[in-house]
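Appendix B. Chain record.
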Amino acid sequence: MNVGLILAQFYRFVPAAYDSGKAGEIIQIAYAVRSYDHPAITVVSYKTVCIVQVIYVTVHVAGLRARPTEGRNFCVSCEFVHLYLLRKETMILKVHITNLYGQHPTSTAQKAQNRIARVAKENLGFNELGIYCYDMNADSPEMLRTRLDGIIASVAYGDIVIIQFPTWNDFKFDEALIRQLSCYPGLKKVTFVHDMKSLMFESSRWLLPYEIQFMNQTDLVILPSQRMADFLRSQGLTVEKTVIQRIWDFPVTIDSFVRPKFGRVINFAGSPDSWKFEFLREWKYDTVELRTTAKEEDWAGQDWAKKEQVNILGWFNDDTLLANALRCSGGFGLLWSENPYFREYMKMNVNYKLSAYLAAGLPVIVNCGIAEKDTITRKNLGLAVDSLDEAVEKVAAMAQEEYEKMVDNVAVFSNLIRDSYFAKKALTDAVFQLLYN
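Structure tokens predicted for this chain:
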């Protein structure tokens, strides 16, 4: 074993937060590691940072003998100690993926992470790293380190960790997590981008350079679209390896005996009370019916809900119920926002609503600028338009034969979404790029 390499690793991985700075003592520990069979080393706390107590040790390096001071405690990187205490055994690669808990059961963010993690565990054999959504300001720095140690307790040298991003905790939590993982030698890290707060919310735009800095500390990034990849590179993303997700999965069971019916109907799965979907409350078209999901408190007594061409489908906390309600409704599924900032985000991000409509078997109506517009038009899965006026005009003038062809195309394509093939492909491609390319 190369003593110089050992020392270099110690200098690199001794946590600065503990302000060790004791080169002589670290050298003594490095020599001790060389004779790892000796019972002199006791690992008191086994994870990211541990206390190694040197009781006594006899070291044979080029005939030199040394005896460290008895009873001294030293702060070193546990993963480094773990690496060099291994008895030349074959390392078995494990792939880990973070998973969000603690939000409301109907949270789209939590559902998305839970589904990706379920595919990773059940289909690919990944290990889960559960992350609870909480107010991290209640944690002291030591409490946070302890919490993170518990989360990544199963992670070892040379593994792969896929971080579903963001964790939806304070961004300081994300920074602490990536910093903790970076202490592991040989670890490969992946950022799986679900959303970017800086691009979702104008008030959070200041986060953009920090989000990119987070990604730059990983070895590969899974992004929703090539357009987002190009944008992030223009803003400073330097990670060479990327995987493009394209579309969210929506694993639901549909009633195959029901076929979406042709009709002058546009469905929208989303709350009219949201700042992103104010156009619902301003529906002005008489030739096409709008059917939207909404909670009763969001529409009861509202003037917009009394319009003849507006109907409420109800509110569905269960995605299977939602998909089958949309399927029975027939017509088209609408992916839309008139909010300028969010509309720009939709050009780069993958939207869950698109997957819900396609999984239900409905042809879709999308803005020409969205990330997967080319897929929609190339596969004839619906309409790409520049305005709601154009959308309504095309639906009103559509022949049933044209609609039926779209339904047939969606029926074939939607198998990819309901059977989670997009997640399987993105996760598998990520591992292949890390280990094969």
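Further analysis of this model is presented in Appendix C.
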